[in-house]
Each structure stands twice: as structure tokens, then as C-alpha cells.
Amino acid sequence: MRWRSAVSESSSLDTALVECGQAIRAEMGHVDTDLVVVFVSQNHAPGFDRVPGLVRREFPRGTIVGCSAGGVIGDGREVEHRPGLSIAAAHLPDVVVSPFRVETSDMPDADAPPDRWEELVHVSGQEQAHFVLLVDPFSFDAEQFVMGLDFAFQSSAKIGGMASGGQRPGGNALFLTDQVYRSGAVGLALSGNVTVDTIVAQGCRPIGRPMRVTSVNRNILTGLDDEKPIEVLQRTYSGLSSSDQHLARQAVFLGIAMDSMNETPQLGDFLVRSIVGGDHATGTLSVAEVLREGQTVQFHVRDAATSAQDLDHMLTSYSERGPIYEETGALLFSCLGRGEHLYGQPDHDTQMFRDKVSPMPLTGFFCNGEIGPVGDSTFLHSYTSSFGIFRPKN
């Protein structure tokens, strides 16, 4: 398995493709490419329909997949607010690459059996495939999709992001093989001698203490440790430092512990969701997630320092699990709200990945939403950096 990554900031789409193609061939030689992943900034929107043909001219063989982007990531650089095109090319011996295309209307009902989902993505559960998912945010129900894939492919990794750059329906582009789509989702199922390690950094840290959900109506939180949630939040706020109170005034999030048996969850153990409203009359909080009684939750805050701390923790934890294989490549799906906007400097997340994990080829884009697992389930996130690290299984 061999991966290479390249990025171009040329304002000419044709030139950008040639520059990336030349850079990758200079490193890979004449080895055939089995997969080409391409992300193209909105600056090149007039040429989106030409992208597959231009890619095919540089890479005659291999499955092509990609999408439009608010910013691109390649060869250790993050290109934002200016023209950018990034490409990952991979030689994948003994790996089967199965592309698929889906519209929301194609998805099975919630009570459909697993084989309906297998038919949708052209792979069976027995093949133990892993998935790369690229979704148009205006036209496709990504949450229903990943829930269905989790149901049918419980042990498979699912990683990806929502296309960005477009401001209205039809403004984004999804690339698959030699076609361009303006709606739905495209993706890959990778099976055979491949496994995908995932790292999801949500950019938040806990404040206060862990609590138990004692009453709830779907996403309306009505009881925390048998108290009114707003009163618990107010008491938590009053006990914070002045700097954390400043962060809490901007936004407070609710972290939901993914391991019900873990009574002392730490940073990285929570699925972080926005608190979208509160009712002082009833003392309830509205959360952007369906909750259930008995769950352990904790309030969270976010800023640049917190986001960096969380990413450092997640990358360090991964690198400490074991050796990093040489025959690897990685895809990064990072929120549009991260990057220079959050950190005030370029290349923050990519540089930390190189420092903490490996200088392996890393390619990606800045998304309208990121897909990745927390615990044993896959979710659609925001403000997240979601990494997929591809390596041989054997």
C-alpha cells in the first residue's frame, strides 16, 4: 500500500491538476493508482464539471472520488480563503474499492433489514468493508445514512464529511468515477487487506462535574440529578473561573458519555452536542441530540486553546497504542470553523498530526459537517477534526 498527497494553489484549475499530478508521479513513479481522492475549492466552481476528466488525464486508472470544498488540505498544508486543489493517490494491492452513489429517496426505511443497506452500497457485511462518505448538506440526510450503515456494518469504520463552498442547493459538487453530482452522497467501500483507524477530536473540554440524566423527553432535558437543568447550569457557571465564564457566555455544550459503565469519563469520552435553547419557566434545556434516562452527561466549553488541547490528547492517545505503519495514508475532514478562523494561524491541525502521529501523506478538506465515530457509533459532528488512517490489515 502506498499513498501520496499533493496540493496546488494555482488559480487555474488545469494548472492545479497538472501540478498535483506531476508531484505525485515524481514520488510514486509508474505504480498504478487504484484510488484518487480530490478536493477542489469553490474558487474553481466554474470548472467543477471538468474535474473528473482533468483528473483522469493525470491518473488514467483508479476510482475517483471527491467534492467541492471551502478549503483544502494536502501535503501537510491547509489552503483556506484562496484557490486550492488537493489530491491523494493510493496504490492499494489486495484491496477492493467499491464506489457508490445515494440519494435520500434511495435509503431504506428505519425498520429495513441489513441486506437492504448492503444493496445500497454494493457490498456485503461479510466483506468487512470500511467506508469513506462525502455528502451534500442541502439535499441528503447524513444522520439517517450513518445510522443505517452502523446497523448493517457494525464493525466497519465510517469517515467523511459534508461538501462545502456552495451557499445554496446545487452549489456543491460531488465527484465519483467520471461523473459530477449536485445532490445526494457519494462514497467508497474498501474491503480486503485494509483497515481504517479513526481519530475524532471534537474541540471541547468538560466543566463542572458529571451528572445523571434523570428525566428527559427526547431532546428536551428535564432533569439532571433530579434537579432542573437550567438551575444546574447556572450553579455550574457560578463556580467557574472568569475565563471559563467568558467561554460559557459564548456557548455551552453538553457532552454525553458513550460508555455507560464509565463513572468517571474524561476528555474524549463524550459525544459533544450543542445546547440549542432553554426554558426558564420550566427549567428545561433543549439539546441537539435525543437523550435517554440514565445517561452520564457533563457541560463543555470550546475555544482555540481547548480545541488544541483536545486534539493533542486524541493524537497522543492514538500514537501511544502502537507503532505507526510506513504503508499508510490519512484523510482529514475538518470543520470550516477550525483552521485559521479558530487558531489565528495556518496548518494547525495538520502540523500537530505530523508532530504527534506521523508525517504520512495527509489529504482532506474543510467541511460543513464531519462524519466519524465516538465510542461504538458513528455521528455527524460540527467543529470537529475527523481523521481516517488507512493501513494494511496484514
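(the above was protein one; protein two follows)
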Amino acid sequence: MKEMLEAAKAAKTTIAALTEQEKSAALNAMADSLLQCEAGILAANELDMKAAKGHMPDVMLDRLRLTPERIAGMAQGIREVAQLPDPVGLTLESHTRPDGLKIDKVSVPMGVIAIIYESRPNVTSDAAALALKSGNVCILRGGKEAFRSANAIVESLRMGLKSEGIPETAVNLVQDTSRDSATALMTANGYVDLLIPRGGAGLISACVRTATVPCIATGTGICHVYVEKTADQNMALNIIENAKTSRPSVCNAEEVLLVDKAIAPEFLPKLHARLGQKVELRLDSEAAKYIPGTPAGEKDFDTEFLDYILAVKCVENVREAVAHIAAHSTGHSEAIVTTDPAAEAFFVANVDSAAVYVNASTRFTDGGEFGLGCEMGISTQKLHARGPMGLRELTTYKYIIHGNGQVRV
């Protein structure tokens, strides 16, 4: 680990100095190499899948699984990052003082970014691409479940870097998947400029508690959809089905449904008819009056299920919906389905989450869907970055001051 940290630190000046053209050429070479190494990556992933079966729920196995189509999507994601505007060297603000000093605020890379993540192999290529495009060196520490896959991916990406004359140490994968290696990254002061944990609540809380390096907490997603009494009910059903079932194992999937009591007798039977065969509905006492399901337990409105489970609660109005979200949300993504401008305005103004939707699925909280390219994660904190973390969020800034001999009196 010490050798890797030192190599990463040594590379960051070189990577920060790359031109936009050099970074784009390297990224396209990385995408080419990823596709060329497809067979080896799939073979490594098959070993990971075999080892994980029986130890991981099916929805989590789906996150681990790679296919030719998913690898093609990873390569395309790298190419899309290559085409995005360079976030480095931008003049964010500029002004001239009365004494003639010209002060520019200019974007610069973070330096060395460490990413600790779990069982999603695609995070490996996404993180590497975003780090390089933003002029950063990355140290990747994946979970043991996906180690073989991640290792094969990193080897292919480093081949692409090498072909363009870029130091391979721009992209690094920690070979040790024990807790010791994670702790070492969390406390690598002087080497790691930014730590980003990406995974479940346990991983994120461990990083927040332990890290002595700067850390951005990418949040778990207890995401809510509130169906207000004036909602187009067919639209609401479509949104709920997409938000819950299109990919239940991701952080932007819906976990809690709030339904206005005024329409509950009419709407909930429609919900049961649409989702009852594939989603376990955990119902509060009011919702249970209208449809069959599992009684909601004490923790069901505070759980990121990452599965085909949906907690359902009836509320009096938009104010109660917002109050419930404030008490139970993780600050990730919330949606209202409504045709009432007043309800919409109250919801948007008072829900304090990174992404707030009106008449749309929470599943859009994603760097690619926001037009940011692939993402490093979804930040639910408020300092430095919030929401999908794209290229801009992987830079910081410095002040550059031009004078002509001024001295302070």
C-alpha cells in the first residue's frame, strides 16, 4: 500500500499537467483496450459470480454480473467522458481590485482520489475515466466479491494508458481487500487528497467515522415517491413501477411510497394490481385497510431494501408527506406526482434532498442521465458536492493573482 500511495502521489503532477487532447486520447485508448480485453474480463467475472452465488441476493448478483453489452456500455461511458469539456483550468470568477490586483479563481485537480466501493465492476472504469479527465490520479479499492473483475478491468485500462505514454500509476487497484487496506486509505494523510466511499450504509458510515483525509459521503438512498390527491393515477403507477422495479438494487430506486388518504381507497387497489405479484408491499395500518400485504414494521420506513420490497404509508396531505420525508429520508432523491401547482411548490421548496422530482421517476438521479457523463457517486452531503458527482465535482480551485509590483500597506 505504501508503494502504491507513493507512486500515485508521484504521478499526480504529470496527470494534472496533461492537455485536454492528451486526456481524451488516453480515454479513448482505455475504451479500446477494455473492449479488446472483453474475453478476459468476462472470464474473471464468471469466477466472481460463481464465488458469490449462494452468498449474495439475486438483485446484488445482478450488480456484479458483466455481459458483453455491459462492457460495451462501460467503454461507451469512457468515450462520453472523453467528449465532455475539460473541467480543469476554467476561470470560475475574475475581478480586479482598486489597487490593480487581478484576482482569478481557477479550477484545478484534486490530486489523488481514493474510491472505496463494493460489488459493482462498472464503477472501476467509471471512476478511472472521471479521475483522468479531471486531471486526477485514482486509487481504487473494490470489494472482494468483484476483485477478479476489477483487476481485469484495471489491467485493460492501464494497457490503454501505456499505449498513449501516460503513467500507468494514474489508475491503481488495491490488491488487498481486507479492512486493513480500507483503513489505510482512510488515514493516508499526505497521500490521498479526497476519499469517496461508494456502497452500502455500513461502508459509508465506517469511512465517515474513521477517515482522517477529506471524505465525501455518497449516500444510501431511502427514496420516496408521494402520490398527491390530484395526481394522474396512471402516471403515478408508471413512475412507481419504474422507480421500484427497473433496478431495485441501486441507490436511486424507490423504497417508500406515500399516498394521499383522499385517493387511497381508489389508488391502492390499482397499485396492488400493478405491483402485487412482483413486489412485497409493507403497509401501514391505513393502507392495509384497502389492499393485502405485509404489516410494516418499525424499521421499514428507515430501510434501504435494495430489493423488490416497498414500504407504503398513507398521509393526510403534502405537509405530512414532507414531514415524513424529513424524518426518514437519507437526502438522496424524492418525487411528487401531482397536478396541483401549490402542492408542487410546497414540496419542491421544503424537501431537503439532493434531487427533487415533479412527475418523474427517482431513477434519473445518475450522472449520465443528468448529462454529466458517468458519475463517481451520489453525494447526499452539502459541502463541496451534492447529487451526482461528475467532472466539476472532482476539481477544486485556487486563486491566481496578477499584479505589477503592489505591496500591502
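Reviewer note on protein two: The radius of gyration is 23 Å.
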